[in-house]
Design brief:
Molecular chaperone. Has ATPase activity. The chain is an alpha+beta fold. 35% of the residues lie in helices and 20% in strands. The strands form 3 sheets. It has a 9-stranded mixed beta sheet. Strands 10-11-14-12-13 form a 5-stranded mixed beta sheet, with helices on both faces. The longest helix has 24 residues. The two termini are 57 Å apart. The structure holds adenosine-5'-diphosphate (ADP) and magnesium ion. The site of adenosine-5'-diphosphate (ADP) has 16 residues, from helix 2. Magnesium ion (MG) binds next to helix 2.
């Protein structure tokens, strides 16, 4: 028997606890959603492990969650018969935060409660939200397959530390017991708890049970009976018919699968039949996660096979450039014992990935092409949060390149702001008579692009230039040469050929000017011998005396600068 030990929380946990208790109070009901969500995950994990080890169920194979309360003790208990936790798991799961990037995330908190509350929402509060309503939390747990004597009790007041000790626990799974703070007594009611569960947790696929109530004539109050009733619909939400699912239910389900706090931007729900049969319920979040650029970041798709949870973060089901998509894919064809290795090679997985990619692009096109202001605004939000990631798709997904190109948005010399809201189609629709190319400039910032001397001649002629200033742009452009048959041309490269945009008189004048400066140009070439490859008279400038240009087939100055900055 291991002695009771007292351990300190990881520094970030302490910060999270402190912040949550102070800033999420107005959202306090979410504690129940979070604890039920964990109980449901624990049931999923047990079902998954039991695929290869049926004995884990013992004589208890009806997975369920119970919510109990005790008015006298002022406690609420959330009890599951899921996977449970070992002592080591208790310490690592309930004493630290496993998410990568946690330190950086906490360094961003400002101390302003409202701003921080929104940030914490994106981070996901999880188990620790119990302390919003409780000043003492006890977790009694026993890992599936372990002996009754191997139970573990975790206990904390949510300050700096917690204790762990061994206990006897008759059944498998986890009981989370909340000792409510003074003033939270209104939660001690069947009606109240049921209404919170129906609001936030109706989508949970296993039954959430509560005790029935009965009026006691003698005591003149309701008493709890030893009889249980199911409070939620208890069927997998994605398997229900679309018409039976409300927007709120879709949104709550999103929060469960994504660990996000805010509602999604949009979603798509389909049953796909044909060469591969599966159901997909895919969401676009409203905010980029704090770890969008973290290479080790978990993806967002949960894989189920015929309703049985198989794995989180099935990255094979979505291309990398759509890594921000959250949701569920439930396959009818994959074997239950599918592994990550099998996923990589599976034809079914390839079909699912291709089909899901098309769905996501379709969902984005719907927003992008909509006439409704609400959808337009949503696309603006989408582009701001995820546009840079979507651009990766130009290089990554040759099949859908044209569709992705239509979804791109840029800042433009036609506008007075850095807002990226001009599409290639907008540009093409505004092209001048005789213009056959799409002109762009790349730079490290909007201001640098806007004030580039290369733009002068275009301004003068009233020709629009797209201003590309995101880090991925240069890379993306190496995969994108044209749009709709119109060549994409950098205004900073090569011998700028404005074609029909120049009239005959101009051409003649240019030729004359060139020959009159011939001598000077030769002198300059000599002087700059080892610094410049060529010196030319240019007509692309109207105000600046000179500018540097890159050779048509060479790296652009901006890319060279980026490579240098990256130490190459
Ligand atoms: P998340 O659910 O996002 O992983 P939480 O803070 O909600 O984060 O929970 C932390 C971890 O604690 C979970 O990932 C899980 O491993 C463990 N855990 C929490 N509740 C339970 C439970 N009821 N049964 C088993 N494990 C649990
Ligand atoms: Mg959780």
């Amino acid at each position: 028997v291991v002695e009771k030990e007292t351990l300190g929380f990881q520094a970030e946990v302490k910060q999270l606890l402190h912040l949550m208790i102070h800033s999420l109070y107005s959202n306090k009901e979410i504690f129940l959603r979070e604890l039920i969500s964990n109980a449901s995950d624990a049931a999923d994990k047990l079902r998954f492990e039991a695929i290869n080890n049926d004995a884990l169920y013992g004589d208890d194979n009806e997975l369920r969650i119970k919510v109990l309360f005790d008015k006298d003790a002022k406690t609420i208990t959330i009890s599951d018969n899921g996977i449970g936790m070992s002592r080591d798991e208790v310490i690592s799961h309930l004493g630290t935060i496993a998410k990568s990037g946690t330190k950086e995330f906490f360094s961003k908190l400002s101390g302003d409660q409202q701003a921080d509350a929104a940030l914490i929402g994106q981070f996901g509060v999880g188990f620790y939200s119990a302390f919003i309503v409780a000043d003492k939390v006890i977790v009694n747990t026993r890992r599936a397959g372990a002996f009754a004597s191997e139970g573990v009790r975790w206990e904390s007041g949510g300050e700096g530390e917690y204790s762990v000790e061994s206990i006897e626990k008759p059944g498998r799974g986890t009981d989370v017991i909340l000792h409510l703070r003074a003033g939270e007594e209104e939660l001690l009611s069947s009606w109240k708890l049921k209404s919170i569960i129906r609001k936030y947790s109706d989508h949970i696929s296993i039954p959430i049970l509560m005790q029935k109530e009965e009026w006691d004539e003698e005591k003149k109050e309701t008493v709890l009976k030893d009889e249980w009733e199911t409070v939620n619909q208890a069927s997998a939400l994605w398997a229900r018919s679309k018409n039976d699912i409300t927007k709120e239910q879709y949104e709550e389900f999103y929060k469960h699968v994504s660990h996000d706090f805010q509602p999604p931007l949009t979603y798509t729900h389909n049953r796909v039949e044909g060469r591969s049969e599966y159901t997909q319920l895919l969401y676009v979040p409203t905010h980029a996660p704090f770890d969008l650029w973290d290479r080790n970041k978990r993806g967002g798709i949960k894989l189920y096979v015929r309703r049985v949870f198989i794995m989180d973060d099935a990255e094979q089901l979505m291309p990398t450039y759509l890594r921000f998509i959250k949701g569920v894919i439930d396959s009818n064809d994959l074997p239950l014992n599918v592994s990550r290795e099998i996923l990589q090679e599976s034809r079914d997985v390839r079909l699912i990935r291709e089909g899901s990619t098309k769905r996501v692009l379709g969902m984005l096109e719907e927003l992008a092409n909509s006439e409704e202001q609400e959808n337009k605004d949503k696309y603006t939000t989408f582009w701001r949060e995820f546009g840079q990631v979507l651009k990766e798709g130009i290089g990554e997904d040759a099949t859908n390149k044209d569709r992705i190109a239509k979804l791109l948005r840029f800042a433009s010399s036609k506008n007075d702001s850095a807002d990226q809201n001009v599409s290639f189609a907008d540009y093409v629709g505004r092209m001048k008579e005789g213009q056959t190319k799409i002109f762009y400039v790349t730079a490290e910032s909007y201001n640098a692009a806007r004030n580039s001397p290369h733009l002068e001649i275009f301004q003068k002629k009233g020709v629009e230039v797209l201003l590309l200033t995101d880090r991925v742009d240069e890379w993306m452009l190496s995969f994108l040469n044209e749009f709709d048959g119109k060549e994409l041309v950098s205004v900073a490269k090569g011998d700028l050929d404005l074609g029909a945009l120049e009239d005959e008189a101009e051409k003649k004048e240019h030729a004359e000017t060139e020959s009159s400066y011939k001598e000077l140009v030769e002198k300059m070439k000599g002087a700059l011998l080892d610094k410049a490859k060529d010196v030319r008279v240019t007509f692309r400038l109207t105000e600046s005396p000179a500018c540097l240009v890159a050779d048509e087939h060479e790296l652009s100055a901006n890319l060279v600068r980026m490579l240098k900055a990256a130490g190459q």
